[in-house]
Amino acid sequence: MRMRAAVLEEFGQPLVVQEVDLAEPKAGEVLVRLEACGVCHTDMYTASGADPSGYAPCVLGHEGGGIVEKVGDDVTSLTPGDKVVTMFSPQCRECVHCVDPRTNLCMAIRAEQNLGHLPDGTTRLSRNGEDIRHFMGTSTFAEYTVMPEIALARINPEAPLDHACLFACGLSTGLGAAMYTAKVDEGTTCVVFGAGMVGLGAVAGCRLQGAERIICVDLSDDRLELAKGQGATEVYKADENTVQWILDETGGYGADYTFEATGLVSVMQQAVESARMAWGLCTVAGVAGKGETLDVIPRWLIQGRRIAGSSFGGVKGRDQVPELVDRYMAGEIDVDPFLSHRISLDEVNKGFDLMEAHDGIRSVIEFN
Ligand SMILES: NC(=O)c1ccc[n+]([C@@H]2O[C@H](COP(=O)([O-])OP(=O)(O)OC[C@H]3O[C@@H](n4cnc5c(N)ncnc54)[C@H](O)[C@@H]3O)[C@@H](O)[C@H]2O)c1
Ligand SMILES: [Zn+2]
Ligand SMILES: [Zn+2]
User: Is 84 in the pocket of ligand 1 (CB under 6 A)?
Assistant: First the structure.
């Protein structure tokens, strides 16, 4: 079929919205008609050329929400009409990691996904016979996408997709960091560094887990206001005294749980230093620049602090994204404040501009 898509033609250049070809879903694959898609930093990072593993031409986008149009052979868990959220982090339910409750790092299609291919090593996207690669296995800056069944989460049919699509990446990453990676305990003290989509999700996750104190740290007053709306009990405008302030606020010990959601290694270090001696757990969700390292004084660890990393919040997507969407539908997660701008596919580059200007949390592309 022919459809419109935003193609990354050349790194560092605006995406070009154009007609491309999309082939039928093969075995184990599903054709999805996109209704909404968030614009995330990872899209912009790849478009800029800063990501050394990036490739072009490809169709970017990974925060999609849509409707199943057609299923290929052997697809058993989805049928046309199902409402789905796309996942760059699949869940095959069979691999060594999927059957283990300790991780969400599904191994089923990793290698081909990293190459921009569907699991059989080919692409469904093309233009005049030339292959176009699939970004993160999702390629949702497009009217339609063909994706593996194992990378689609079927959600509540009542959930509005302009909101639900945000569970495809940043929001679930933050929520999950608190709920599934750190498993925050009731009555505890938490500190979240960064109040973007991920950090705000972590604040909400700490609240859902029943934390007593949730301190959010950011440079922006506007974002700290949003953090209060998600359940932060205290906010702090980041400065050179951030760690000392947290220690002073916690009887000199530090917080039970800290979360880093900035992607800055200097802030990761602060998050480690602000974790409580004896049992404090620092969860790192931010993605640092290539080659950057995190300096940790071993004594911090010997004193009982622990550090965990979290990819997609440890969320097992097909099982747990629907649960998170249900909690949103039940009124437990306030998604509205994250949806800052609604744009069309043709305005996708404006989405990047807004992000660069730190204007709002998320721009969502709506397809009509
Ligand atoms: N682990 C994953 O699976 C995953 C998924 C999505 C995003 N991410 C990463 O998470 C990070 C956050 O993503 P986002 O979309 O929320 O980004 P964002 O840019 O919207 O938010 C980052 C926030 O950090 C704040 N900040 C900057 N310097 C700070 C400092 N010194 N102290 C405190 N706050 C500071 C900024 O003001 C901003 O509000 C990024 O690195 C992103 O790549 C990881
Ligand atoms: Zn993302
Ligand atoms: Zn798996």
Answer: no
Our answer on whether the CB atom of 194 is closer than 6 Å to any ligand 1 atom is yes
Reported pTM: 0.97
pLDDT tens, residue by residue, 19-66: 999 999 999 999 999 999 999 999 999 999 988 889 999 999 999 999
Q: Which long-range contacts (CB under 8 A, 24 or more apart) does 129-132 make?
A: 130/57, 132/7, 132/20, 132/57, 132/58, 132/59
Residue 352 lies in domain:
2-168+334-366
Query: Which pLDDT does position 289 carry in this prediction?
Result: 85
**Nearest ligand, CA 197:** 1
Q: Are residues 74 and 214 in the same domain?
A: no
Percentage with pLDDT > 90 across the chain: 97
Does 320 fall in a domain? no
Based on the domain organization, do 187 and 300 belong to the same domain? yes
Q: Find where tokens 């592309």 sit.
A: 365
Report the amino acid identity of residue 213. Answer: R
**Does 45 share its domain with 154?**
yes
Give the residue ranges of DSSP H helices in the chain.
Answer: 41-48, 110-114, 161-164, 170-176, 197-208, 221-230, 242-249, 265-273, 298-302, 317-329, 348-356
Tell me how far the alpha carbon of residue 98 lies from the centroid of ligand 3, in angstroms: 4
Is the beta carbon of 220 within 6 A of some atom in ligand 1? yes
Tens digit of pLDDT for each residue in 188-214? 999 999 999 999 999 999 999 999 999
Q: Are residues 51 and 82 in the same domain?
A: yes
